[in-house]
């Protein structure tokens, strides 16, 4: 089994894309005729995955969107479908887990055994020991929150009271870890200057970049500040702008068109 980093690099090369499509189903926004169907979230996600696969380097299903309405089994089924149908495309489970001890071990098992994700998002707030259970899955990726795209993140991640911003301390520490080859960091498109500092701190480690599309981050600034020395190194995530491009019966083809446009916009600045 190839490592997460290897799978990601192969996907960049095969797809020619840095785009990641987030799968965030919402009963109020999916087509009405689908909302009442059996396995509505699986069917919606499956259609989005099949339609957008030619334009992506990764998929990122959001765990809470499924769990909040009791559709965890549909999430597992969607990941299984994606990995079977498109085995070269990594699946990142967006769960943002953070805990210690036996609970952390169970969260790791949930991500990598129950859902069989290639990687999972986690919070470093409780320290490296809270991440060790994830590192035990040697071929899987650990996507660590670093400089997130939400406007309220400054008070903790980039406080003017700190001699060194917390996000930069996280980035520098991860680069020094013995198992950093399993790591990826989250650095939002809405803070391009900080994105450049994260890239400088982590060298070749890949970055997951939310914040384009609905959140308004600049694709050009992301590419300028985030590419690695090989001209890749980024997984640029967009969810709502793609999967909800159309709420009618043509939602899948509209998502495909939106994903293709996003990929082309990204590649224009590479």
Question: Could you describe the 3D structure shown?
Answer:
The protein is an alpha/beta fold. It has one domain (4-268): Aldolase class I (TIM Barrel). Helix content is 45%, strand content 14%. It has helices at residues 4-15, 32-35, 40-52, 63-67, 72-85, 101-114, 132-135, 154-157, 166-176, 192-202, 219-226, 240-243, 251-268; strands at 19-23, 58-61, 92-97, 119-122, 141-147, 183-187, 207-209, 234-238. Strands 2-1-8-7-6-5-4-3 form an eight-stranded parallel β-sheet. Helix 11 (219-226) links the parallel strand 7 (207-209) and strand 8. Helix 9 (166-176) runs parallel beside helix 10 (192-202). The radius of gyration is 18 Å and the shape is globular. It starts with a helix and ends with a helix. The mean pLDDT is 95.
Summarize the structure.
The chain has 270 residues and is an alpha/beta fold.
CATH topology: TIM Barrel
Largest sheet strand order = 2-1-8-7-6-5-4-3
* Whole-number mean pLDDT: 95
Got a strand count?
8
Top-tier CATH class: Alpha Beta
The CATH superfamily is identified as Aldolase class I
Order of secondary-structure elements: HEHHEHHEHEHEHHEHEHEHH
Shape call = globular
Helix and strand content put the structural class at alpha/beta
Helix content: 40-55%
How would you sum up the major sheet? 8 strands, parallel
Our count of domains comes out at 1
Q: List segments where confidence is low: pLDDT < 50 over at least 5 consecutive residues.
A: none
CATH architectural category: Alpha-Beta Barrel
Could you tell me the radius of gyration in angstroms?
18 Å
Number of helical elements: 13
Query: What is the strand content?
Result: 5-15%
Terminal Cα span: 30 Å
């Amino acid at each position: 089994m190839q490592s997460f980093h290897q799978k990601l690099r192969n996907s960049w090369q095969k797809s020619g894309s840095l785009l990641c499509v987030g799968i965030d189903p919402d009963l109020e926004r999916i087509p009405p005729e689908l909302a009442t169907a059996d396995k509505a979230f699986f069917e919606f996600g499956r259609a989005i995955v099949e339609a957008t696969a030619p334009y992506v380097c990764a998929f990122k299903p959001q765990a809470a969107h499924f769990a909040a309405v009791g559709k965890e089994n549909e999430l597992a089924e969607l990941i299984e479908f994606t990995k079977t149908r498109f085995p070269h495309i990594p699946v990142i489970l967006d769960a943002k887990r953070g805990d210690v001890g036996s609970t952390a071990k169970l969260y790791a098992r949930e991500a990598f055994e129950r859902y069989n994700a290639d990687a999972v998002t986690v919070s470093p707030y409780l320290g490296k020991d809270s991440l060790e259970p994830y590192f035990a899955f040697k071929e899987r990726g650990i996507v660590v929150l670093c400089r997130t795209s939400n406007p309220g993140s400054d008070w903790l991640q980039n406080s003017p009271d700190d001699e060194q911003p917390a996000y930069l301390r996280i980035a520098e520490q991860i680069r020094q870890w013995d198992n950093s080859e399993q790591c990826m960091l989250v650095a939002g498109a809405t803070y391009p200057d900080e994105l450049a500092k994260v890239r400088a701190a982590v060298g070749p480690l890949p970055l997951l970049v939310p914040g384009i599309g609905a959140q308004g981050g600049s694709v050009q600034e992301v590419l300028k500040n985030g590419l690695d020395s090989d001209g890749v190194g980024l997984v640029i995530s967009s969810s709502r702008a793609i999967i909800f491009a159309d709420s009618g019966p043509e939602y899948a083809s509209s998502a495909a068109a939106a994903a293709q446009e996003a990929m082309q916009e990204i590649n224009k600045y590479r």
